[in-house]
Amino acid sequence: MSSTSAAGPMTRPAPPSSQALVLLAAVAVSLLLSRSSHVAAGGHPDYADALAKAILFFQGQRSGQLPPDQAVTWRSNSGLSDGSAANVDLTGGYYDGGDNAKFGFPMAFTTTMLSWSVLEHGGRMKARVRDARDAVRWGADYLLKAATQTPGRLYVGVGDPGADHRCWERPEDMDTPRAVYWVSASAPGSDVAAETAAALAAASMVFRAADRAYSRRLLAAARGVMELAVQHQGKYSDFVGGDVGAYYQSYSGYKDELLWGSAWLLWATNSSSYLAYLYSLGDNDGVDMFSWDNKLAGARVLLSRRALVNGDTRLEPFRQQAEDFFCRILRDSPSSTTQYTPGGLMHKSGYANLQYVTSASFLLTTYAKYMAATKHTFSCQSLPVTATSLRALAKQQVDYILGANPQGMSYMVNFGARWPQRIHHRASSLPSVASHPAHIGCQEGFQSYFYSSGANPNVHTGAVVGGPDEHDEFPDDRADYARSEPTTYTNAPLVGCLAYLAGTYRT
């Protein structure tokens, strides 16, 4: 049939070729991904949209055999022989950031914070609570294997981190040594063991109603790992070898993890034995940050839940210490020790600063919840503090991350009108196996992709990067890992913040 109309020069365009249809579909998908309802009707960011994306991020960090419902389709199976060097199964879990090693210490903190997000704010997640539980389970499944496969051992890492960082290759292609690291009575690691106990205990409560048998297994493993942490004390980076400590050693020591793990087991078991142990760990050290390394502020806020909401006066000292933390981070507090950028962002470190912002914001929103429920207030010397005060600071920090900043840039990938295009992330920056089936070698990855000025081919939706510097500057440079690398422990506390804000500021 001719495409020319009998009426004259007006023509009907020819049907597009199959190649053109593929191109049109690709453009449509690209437009859909780049479009974001990032501003809600109330003028604030669309927190529900950001929440969905923050949770989806974890699928892009998965290691192991991916499930049939995997939504991040540019990732494929990886690390399927992990653990074989020690004759155990250590497949699964998460890659912590843009590399391909698996570090148990930050993975456990990630799982703890995802669990706490669900426990405190799951009611505000609506349909997303199932996705959040799936994210918890992916981490908890791995930690359960790490804690129970060999009696007396906790496996704490897979992959030679030095060799891994000398390569730029997809997880699906990695051919660097997958060495296995563990702690035990003779090679103690109270920091990583107590953090793993916290993660397993917290996850056990997430699944207490949904999967009772799984919950009981998690809690039993938590008790066992905590016993290892308490009875055989030491820093894991002093014993495990493999230069693991160069990446994730606990600079704050391990007493904060012992407090943290005990606090979680107290909540999970209500056993007075953990309460008694908490007092032996109590100290008055003032802190103004909360992270995968230093858990003091988080443990104190967690214990304050019991003091405020349950009226347990035995934990009043921890409530006072928690409020001291907030006095150290509130901008107008006379006792503030926290620097802010000209644009209003908390600035704690030149490396991955947003991890400290999201963690602090989680504590702000969570303590605000406790305060609102009990009509509690406190003061930072002459400054009165209310639940509204804490919530306002958390909202301002999250809004900054989502685009309300001098750069006009969202630091969450694929949220808002402008976001980082060249994140420091191997799987995102290299073509997927589906689009490029051939193996991409270690150095080829550097030469052909790492040094490219082009945008990453795979959009890692929901990834929150390290963020701007103390002057609100952000270069969007793949080589600048301090500002351009996303991590699981940055996103995990943000999930809880976004759920809280989505429930408070509805569209």
UniProtKB/TrEMBL annotation:
Name residues in a coiled coil. none
- Which catalytic residues are annotated? 476, 485
The record, for InterPro entries, names: 6-hairpin_glycosidase_sf, 6hp_glycosidase-like_sf, Glyco_hydro_9, Glyco_hydro_9_Asp/Glu_AS
Q: Which SUPFAM superfamilies match?
A: Six-hairpin glycosidases (SSF48208)
Which terms does the record give in the GO molecular function aspect?
Answer: cellulase activity
Where would one find the signal peptide in this protein?
A: 1-41
Q: Which UniProt keywords apply?
A: Carbohydrate metabolism, Cellulose degradation, Glycosidase, Hydrolase, Polysaccharide degradation, Signal
PROSITE patterns per the UniProt record, alphabetical = GH9_3 (PS00698)
Domain Glycoside hydrolase family residue range list:
47-498
Q: Name one GO biological process term.
A: cellulose catabolic process
Q: Which reaction does it catalyse?
A: Endohydrolysis of (1->4)-beta-D-glucosidic linkages in cellulose, lichenin and cereal beta-D-glucans
What Pfam families does UniProt report for this protein, alphabetically?
A: Glyco_hydro_9
Q: What class of enzyme is it?
A: hydrolase
The Enzyme Commission number assigned here is 3.2.1.4
Q: Does the keyword Transmembrane helix apply?
A: no
Q: Does the keyword Hydrolase apply?
A: yes
Family membership noted in the UniProt record = Belongs to the glycosyl hydrolase 9 (cellulase E) family.
Quote the protein name from its UniProt record: Endoglucanase
Which organism does this record belong to?
Zea mays (Maize)
Gene symbol here is: Cel16
